[in-house]
């Protein structure tokens, strides 16, 4: 069995007409990612029932449904309502992370408290440069302390500055992310996309309260980087994440699913014990699962 620590999900009201949703909610950045003005979109859409079937086909026990890094607080409110509905129907298969935008101020902090009371187990995915606030925002700092109080990990999007350009690519300074982790030592951080592989270029080891997920790596890197990352950072700091239903294998007509990213990880020169740690045990420990 496996746990996927990084997926996204949208209701039919959004997937049926992403343009209409983006215009109504004033979410141009999200639209540029899922429906770029130039080139083919890599975004696919799946219903909760299709998600559950894909999980069963690949032996995925649970998934972490991340919210998007919305530009507006109102979109966060909508997302929490979706998550509550999904959790009510599949509480043993889904883990939801609460949406957040620091521009919402006190209302954003109250939303987080409400989200935790309604079953959310974390915060994110966050991307301050895309959402319109600074890593130093005091409301974000309060949110991170709130996460520590609830033992709720926080997922941050991290861009690799060395990879090719793609729709929605935006700079996420790794130094700013490390500062947050160091300033909030009691908060657990997940840096997505293997932290943009920045730990491989950084001489200092990441803080103890930071782990990394593997989401979108097959799309970003021509050859697997898991062996090198394990050797540099440590297998105990890596979570399996697929970024489902993003087409991370765009040339494969079977994508998106969980089978292909799991297979790449399993063929990435890792031992069975390392694979089990990445795909299951590390997530169970982080999310306090028995």
UniProtKB/TrEMBL annotation:
Domain Amidohydrolase-related positions: 3-289
Entry keyword Protein biosynthesis: no
Residue stretches spanning the membrane: none
Keywords assigned: Lyase
Top-level taxon of the source organism: Bacteria
Any Gene Ontology biological process: secondary metabolic process
One cellular component term from this protein's GO annotations in UniProt: cytoplasm
Single GO molecular function: carboxy-lyase activity
Pfam family, one: Amidohydro_2
UniProt-listed Gene3D superfamilies: Metal-dependent hydrolases (3.20.20.140)
The keyword Protein biosynthesis is assigned to this record: no
InterPro entries: ACMSD, Amidohydro-rel, Metal_Hydrolase
Name recorded for this polypeptide: Amidohydrolase family protein
């Amino acid at each position: 069995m496996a746990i996927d620590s990084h997926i996204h999900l949208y209701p039919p009201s959004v997937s049926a007409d992403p343009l209409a949703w983006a215009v109504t909610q004033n979410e141009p950045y999200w639209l540029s990612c899922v429906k770029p003005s130039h080139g083919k979109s890599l975004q696919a859409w799946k219903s909760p029932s299709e998600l559950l079937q894909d999980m069963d086909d690949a032996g995925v026990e649970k998934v972490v449904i991340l919210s998007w890094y919305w530009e507006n607080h109102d979109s966060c409110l909508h997302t929490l309502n979706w998550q509550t509905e999904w959790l009510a129907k599949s509480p043993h298969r889904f883990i939801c992370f609460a949406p957040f935008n620091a521009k919402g101020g006190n209302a954003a902090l109250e939303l987080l408290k409400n989200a935790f009371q309604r079953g959310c187990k974390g915060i994110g995915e966050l991307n301050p440069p895309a959402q319109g606030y600074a890593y130093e925002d005091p409301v974000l700092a309060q949110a991170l302390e709130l996460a520590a109080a609830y033992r709720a990990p926080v997922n941050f999007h991290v861009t690799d500055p060395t990879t090719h350009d793609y729709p929605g690519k935006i700079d996420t300074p790794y130094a700013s992310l490390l500062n947050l982790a160091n300033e909030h030592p009691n908060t657990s951080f997940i840096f997505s996309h293997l932290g943009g592989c920045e730990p491989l270029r950084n001489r200092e080891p990441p803080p103890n309260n930071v782990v990394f997920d593997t989401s979108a790596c097959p799309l970003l890197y021509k050859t697997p980087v898991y062996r090198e990352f394990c050797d540099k950072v440590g297998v105990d700091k890596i979570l399996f994440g697929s970024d489902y239903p993003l087409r991370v294998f765009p040339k494969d007509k079977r994508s998106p699913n969980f089978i292909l990213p799991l297979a790449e990880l399993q063929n990435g020169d890792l031992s069975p014990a390392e694979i089990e740690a990445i795909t299951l045990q590390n997530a169970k420990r982080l999310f306090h699962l028995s």
